[in-house]
Amino acid sequence: MRQDTDALGATALPEGSLYGVHTARALANFPVSGQSVAPELLSAFAWVKAACALANQDAGHLDAARTSAIVAACREIAAGRHTEQFPVDALQGGAGTSTNMNVNEVVANRALQLMGRQPGDHEFLSPLGHVNLHQSTNDTYPTALRVAALTLLKDLETAASRLQDALQAKEAAFAHVVKVGRTELMDAVPMTLGMTFGAFAEAVARDRWRIFKCRERIKQVPLGGTAVGTGLGAPRAFIFKAAEHLRHLTGLPVSRAENLVDATANADCFVEVSGILSAFAANLLKIASDLRLLASGPHTGIGEIRLPALQAGSSIMPGKVNPVIPECVGQAALTVMGNHQTVTLVAGLGQLEINQYLPLLAHKLLESIRLLRDASTLFADKCVAGIEADETRCRELVEKSQALATVLVPALGYETVARLMAEAQAAGRSLAAHLDAVGLLPQAEAATLLAPKRMRKLGFEEEDYKSLRRPGA
Questions:
Q1: pTM for the whole thing?
Q2: Of 107, 25, 97, 119, whose CA–CA distance to 66 is shortest?
Q3: Beta bridge partner(s), residue 10
Q4: Most CB atoms within 10 A, among 128, 149, 164, 441?
Q5: Cα separation of 51 and 241, whole Å?
Q6: Do 323 and 293 form a contact (C-beta atoms < 8 A)?
Q7: Strand, coil or helix: what is 12?
Q8: Which residues make Cβ contacts (< 8 Å) with residue 130, sequence separation at least 6?
C-alpha cells in the first residue's frame, strides 16, 4: 500500500494503482450503479488533458519535459490502456468532478512513471498543479462529452450508411415481386416488395443525414471557461490555445464556444442530438416490427419473406425459429427512446451555471449512440442482407386478396366493383375468375393489371384497361 493525501486526510492505496485519493473517495462514496464511466468519455478526457498541457506549455506555464510526459500518458489512455485504473461509478455527484480527478490522477502518476519516478511524487508532478492546471471540471467534462459524442456519431453515421445500403440492395432484388400492401393490418392495394424495402431505405437515409447535421450542434466546446465560463483563473493565452490543440489532437472540427457561460451552463445541444437518436430509434423499431410481421408464421402468418435462421427458437418446440435480430434491434431502439427522456429531464434540471446531473446525461447519451451503432450494423449484416422473398406466397396472397378490386375502381367505379366482389364471393371464386366467367376480363389478362411494372408507375393510363369490357358495353 501507499499513502495519498488530500484536504480531508490520508488514504491508503494499492501500491500498483495509478489513481489516487480523490478516486478512492469516489469509490467509497458512489457504489451505486455498478457501471463504469464510458470508455469513449475517458479517451476524450485524455485528449482534453493533452490539449491543455500543450496550451499551458505554449503559455509558458508548463515545461517541455512535464508536458511531454503528460501528453504521452494521455495518448496511452486515449488508446484504451489503463482501463482498470478508472473504477469510478458512472453515476456520481459533483457534476463529473470524480471523473475529472480520476483522469488527473492517472495521467499524473503514469507521467511520473514515464519520467522514471514513482506514482505519488506529486511534489514533482501534480494531478491538480500540472495536469489540471487552468482547468475546472465544469469546462473539461462537457468538453470531453462533446468529443466523445462527436467520435461516436461518426461511427454511427457509417453504420447507418451500411444499413441503408443493405436495404437498397433488397429494394432492387425484390423490385419484381408483387405483394399485398396493408393498412390497419388489413389488405389494401397491390405494391412490390421492393417498394417496401425502398421506404425502409429512405427512412434510414434521412437518419443518416440527421446524424451528419447534428454533429454541428456539439462542435463548440467550453474549454477555457473554467468554473462558470468566465475563464477566471486561466491565462488568456491558454484559453485561446486549448481548443485549437484539441482540434489538432482529435482531428475533430471542435472550436471554442463564443459564449463560454452558455456552453458551460446549458445542455440543450445534447437534447437535440438525443432527439435525432430517438428519431433513428423510432425508424429502427418500425422496420424491425414490419419485418417480424412480414416473416410471421411462416405457414400460418403472412410469410412473405424469410429471415435468416440464426438459432433454435424454442426449448420445447422443435424446428421453431424466431426473428431474434429484429427483436434485439427493437429492444435497443426502446432503450434509446427511454434514454432520450432522461437526457431531456437532465438538461431541464440543470441549475444556474452548471448541470449537476451531467454524468447521467453523458452515460445515457453515449449509451444511445453506441446502441444504435451496434444495432444498425447487426441489423444490416445478420438480418437484412440475408432476407429472402417467398414469391409463391406473395403471389398466392395477392390472388386471394381484394387487390385486383382496387385496381379496377378507376375503370368501373367503386359501386360496380363492390357488386362484382359480392358476386364472386357468393359464387365461391376469386374476383379474377368471376370477371372471366362473366366475360368482363380474361383471367390471363387480369395478371397484367397486377404486373410489377404497373405497380411502379405513378398513377394509371387509359391503355392499362384496354382488355377490360365495361358492364353493358
A1: 0.91
A2: 107
A3: 5
A4: 149
A5: 8
A6: no
A7: strand
A8: 53, 62, 66, 70, 108
Type of residue at 358 = L
305-306/220-221 β-pairing: unpaired
Which grid cell sits at 304?
A: 412473405
> Could you tell me the CA-to-CA distances from 226 to 236, 354, 377, 408, 447 in Å, in that order?
12, 11, 39, 72, 73
Amino acid at position 446, single letter? A
Tell me whether residue 317 is exposed, middle or buried, using C-beta atoms within 10 angstroms of its C-beta: 0 to 12, 13 to 18, 19 or more: exposed
Compute the distance between CA of residue 405 and CA of residue 409 in angstroms, rounded to an integer.
7
Q: The C-alpha cell of 7 is what?
A: 484536504
CA dist., res. 208 & res. 227, Å (int): 36
Mean pLDDT for all residues in the chain: 92
User: Which residue shows C-alpha cell 411494372?
Assistant: 453
Contact call for residues 142 and 222 (beta carbons, < 8 A): yes
| Greatest CA separation for the chain | 105
> Which are the catalytic amino acids?
314
For residues 296 and 394, what is the distance between their CA atoms, to the nearest angstrom?
Answer: 13
- By CB atoms closer than 10 A (0-12, 13-18, 19+), residue 112 is buried
